[in-house]
Amino acid sequence: MVVVLGIGAQSRVQLESDVSHYNGDRSSWVKGARAGRDEQLDLTLQIRIDQQGLDDLERIFWDVSDPKSVNYGAHRTPEQVGRILDVPNSRINMVRQFFFDQGVSNIKLSPQRDMLTLSAKIHVFEKALETELYHFSHSEWPLMNIIRSATSYSLPEEIANEVIIVGELLQFPNLKRKSLTNLDASEASWTNDCEAAACKNHVTPGVLNKAYSLSGSPISLKNSMSVSEFQGQYFKTKDIELFGTSCHRDVEVDEVIGGNQEKAGVEAELDIEYIRAVAPEIRLTVIYSAQYSLLNWCNKIVSNASSPLVHSVSYGNDEAQQTSRAYILSCNTAFQKAGAQGLSILFASGDQGVCGREGCGRAKIIFHPDFPAASPYITAVGGTDFLGTDIGEETTWRSGGGGFSDNFPIPSFQTAVVAAYKANPDAKLPAQTMWNNTGRGYPDVAALGGEKNPYCICTNGRFAGVAGTSASCPVVAGVFAKLNGIRISNGKSPMGYLNPFIYQNPTAFNDVTTGRNDDGKSHGFTAVKGWDPATGFGTPNYAALAKLV
Fold this sequence. Notes:
By secondary structure, the chain is of the alpha/beta class. The chain has helices at about 50-65, 80-85, 90-100, 120-130, 155-160, 205-210, 235-245, 265-280, 295-305, 325-340, 415-425, 470-490, 500-505, 540-545, and strands at about 5, 10-15, 30-35, 40-45, 105-110, 115-120, 135-140, 145-150, 155, 165, 225-230, 255, 285-290, 310-315, 315-320, 345-350, 370, 380-385, 395, 405-410, 440, 445-450, 455-460, 460-465, 510, 540. The chain starts with a strand and ends with a helix.
């Protein structure tokens, strides 16, 4: 949706006009001071791609991702994806010239030729986009600070016709609740395999090894994985070293993209400690992005021909909250580029059950699915708890995100399992008025992430319990990185986009058949035999998966 402002030669078009302007009513972000005019800012711009290019990209994305296709694994380079998209030079030059004339001198074009990275001072962007930029801090995490527009933004009509989005000026990410950190654990019957006494009753690397039948995979310099961290989420080298020593794991970061400061960040250290706990033999990169920009992050990974093969991302937002159609479609295009290039992207499904950050409401109850978890072009990871006090059967973590997208239809790879779930009387479906019956179902898989026995991490020199699908996601990502190791050692391509493989091999996962993701409230989706929107197909069985790749 666009809104034309003014008339004649001065006409401008408001981009992302379907986004409600920030008013603070429902947001966890608090508006602060106006950004300084000479502060530096990077923005990512999505250039318009003709429909033929989008159609060709999606066709190739599915073809190279389907294990049943003769072209499975025939991934493309970034430059080859650029030729598929075929963005005209005239369009690129017009947009680039406009921003250059406005004073943006640092402009980088992606290898796929559909994204521009713009670097300039605040006053340059405010003038070019006719907007006002402010600092925003988070109500629960006050040290988290981002720059966003408090109003709207626009471009001259001629330029706006060639631009999809300048992001993320209007998007406000969802952060982990503080209530999911520093948690006590319920009594467990397993032995603490870490030397830190605070890890007793918690999930540790040894617990995951037993729960998911983990073992080593072939070591290859061609194999790689990453965790992605956003504004303020740094890690202390001493923390991850102490975790490794205590829990008897080789935990280290091999490369950092985007910089790091020696500061403790719970999210970052959780991701690092547990993806390496699962896959200590695989090279790990930490990718840091200062402004919570998924577009900037995805542009960064798909522009790098040597990008890590598996990417774990523990951030998201409600589809409906501060999210425009242009934004989610631009992200989906970026995810397809990644899949076409052989990259696997996994997102945490969220930590507020079916209601999301906005809540379900009172007078009219409506579920709020998560984005990007509900995108059909990534793999979504939900959360579980142990059913009993020992390592074994698992149940749904009540706060794990899951449900059905309000934006994307059911993809072909899950048509049958979604229909089977809805037809299952044990599902006890919520009233149809609460959710979209025709939407893409998520999560696809799950792993331990609940509060009953939280993960034991080392942060700021101390061991503490942390819960959430932010823990589940790097664990599952580590499992698939290990599977890539097997494929690479056998001369095969990496797995790339994972969902076709997952949905064709459901028996390689530990089915979770109990519990409901209602976040302790009255409504949610119930886990049943087979796929469900509480835990997907369940948790990974590495020994079984290793036989299939």
